[in-house]
Amino acid sequence: MAQCLRLPRETMGILIQIGFLAAAAFRVVNGQKGFVSIDCGMDAGGSITDNITGIVYQPDTQFIDTGINYEIPKSYLTPYSLPQLGTLRSFPDGVRNCYTINQVNQGEKYLIRAFFMYGNYDGQDSASIGSPLQFDLHLGVNYWRTLNITDPFSVNPVEIITVAKDDYFSVCLVKTGSGTPFISSLELRLIDSVDLYTDVNQSNSLVSAFARVNFGGGPGLIR
Length: 223
Description:
By secondary structure, the chain is mainly β. The protein has one domain (about 35-205): Jelly Rolls, CATH 2.60.120.430. The protein is about 10% helix and about 35% strand. The chain is built from 1 helix and 14 strands, in the order αββββββββββββββ. It has a 7-stranded mixed β-sheet, with no helix packed on it. The two termini are about 35 Å apart.
């Protein structure tokens, strides 16, 4: 039998406040204030627009000068695939390759989101359960996350909410001996509210453990 979770009135009030904060943050998102949206592997001079959000993604050439551009084979994409996942940048050379994002206000709070879709771009069938494709993601000198990719069709998002200690962020892909690092998309979002994610400060960041899940907010993605 399904059971309902009854919340105290005080908790409901907090949830309503969070809803208002999220709506305010969404208005900022639509205006793209404090946004950097990067389509990794896109040819220089191009751009792509997400038809749902209206967000414009730019090439990654001004943020990094290493790596090789690839396109994902069409057979691995669907009509519902995020448009910025059609290309990626791969890093066969060097142990550590870093993106530098300069449009940052020191002391401000940011969400940094990266997407990884293998799509068998190299024709090597490198991602499987028995032989996963693994590499590390660092934010500056600090370890962020290990990517463990076992399915060429899967989209692997990772997020961190952090305070900028400098006027730039350095997002680095680091080899661990289990395949070639790559990245599909990289996003920077200014969190323009002191009331959101109050646990995040100069010493503490929040890292997504699994995924964001939509409970009852309607079908489709909420961005």
